[in-house]
Specification:
Elements (H helix, E strand, L loop, with lengths): L6 H34 L7 H19 L2 H23 L6 H19 L13 E3 L7 H6 L1 E3 L1 H18 L1 H11 L1 H6 L4 H25 L13 H11 L4 H23 L6 H5 L1 H13 L2 H4 L12
Antiparallel strand pairs: 1-2
């Protein structure tokens, strides 16, 4: 198709961005939900980048060795939980800063993934199936845009369940109490360390599903540049979403659409700004961090324990 400004080209770009928002945004969704749970407990896990990369490698290895994508997804979740649990335990030690520990865990997870994953760069593994939600249309553009990662509906359901659970269940109340006032939680007999380690581990498992989406769906292979910092961007996404799981869904789709802008423009023959368009998610991250660092916006919705020096 020509690069003209006609309605057809605009419609194709819009469809490509819509499909890309879901395709690229699925890992963002799972990682941001995992970080949301962790931060609700009053802990920041910068190590999620390491958990994401390690789980992507482990999920690909599991699917490749067993021949079943579902086992690969399960292994990816467990691997993410393992890396996150290590962060949770280390951060619980007296005098250990969770941000510094997160950076160390990130480097460990990425390094292990690169080392153990070298034999996996060339092979192909069974892929997570796609849901053909556009089968009703004869348009190939609509079919491609609505070819949805099978894990995406799970992520949407998970966001809704977490939003409900945080407000309406005992564990949600306990989690929010630990995140808002550790002293009050201790006074009521709650194990602050136990809740934080459990929340960090659960967050790592959810983030691991995002790793499986990377290596087993889009782009659907294992390589060392797979993540492109999505685990770190998730921290900005959670701030942008005001620590609300449903808003994490919207933020993930926004960043997914931004990441799909470059390929969408290229698909209609506009390739001159491809690399500039690919920088949009990182520019968005920077803008969000600058915006949320202002005194007017930084406190609203944040768990109070995130501002406590430990």
């Amino acid at each position: 198709m020509s690069a003209g400004p006609g309605d057809g080209a605009f419609f194709d770009v819009l469809l490509a961005v819509l499909g890309g928002a879901i395709r690229v945004g699925t890992p963002f969704l799972f990682v941001s939900l995992g970080e949301c749970i962790t931060e609700k407990a009053g802990r920041i896990n910068l190590g999620l980048e390491g958990a994401l990369v390690f789980s992507a490698m482990a999920g690909f290895a599991g699917a490749y060795l067993t021949g079943h994508w579902a086992l690969g997804v399960l292994l990816a979740g467990c691997s993410g939980a393992l890396v996150a649990a290590l962060h949770g335990l280390v951060s619980s030690l007296r005098g250990v800063n969770d941000i510094a520990a997160g950076i160390a865990i990130m480097l460990l997870g990425v390094g292990l993934a690169f080392y153990l994953g070298k034999p996996l760069i060339q092979p192909q593994a069974p892929q997570i199936p796609a849901l053909a939600l556009g089968a009703w249309s004869a348009s190939p553009q609509i079919n491609a845009a609505l070819n949805i990662n099978a894990l995406f509906p799970l992520g949407v359901l998970l966001a809704l369940l977490l939003a409900w659970g945080l407000k309406n269940t005992a564990w949600g109340l306990r989690l929010r109490m630990v995140g808002d006032s550790a002293d009050a939680a201790r006074a009521l007999g709650t194990s602050v360390t136990g809740v934080r380690v459990a929340a960090t581990t659960l967050g790592g498992f959810i983030a691991g599903l995002g790793g499986a989406s990377l290596s087993l769906h889009y782009p659907g292979s294992w390589n060392e540049g797979l993540s492109s910092g999505q685990g770190l961007i998730a921290v900005a996404l959670v701030i942008f979403a005001r620590w609300q799981p449903v808003r994490c869904l919207g933020a993930a789709l926004l960043f997914g659409g931004a990441g799909a802008l470059g390929p969408a423009l290229q698909s209609v023959g506009i390739g001159g700004y491809y690399h500039l368009a690919n920088a949009v998610p990182y520019a968005l991250t920077l803008l969000i961090l600058v915006w949320t660092c202002s005194p007017r916006h930084s406190i609203r919705g944040a768990p109070m324990e995130l501002g406590v020096t430990r």
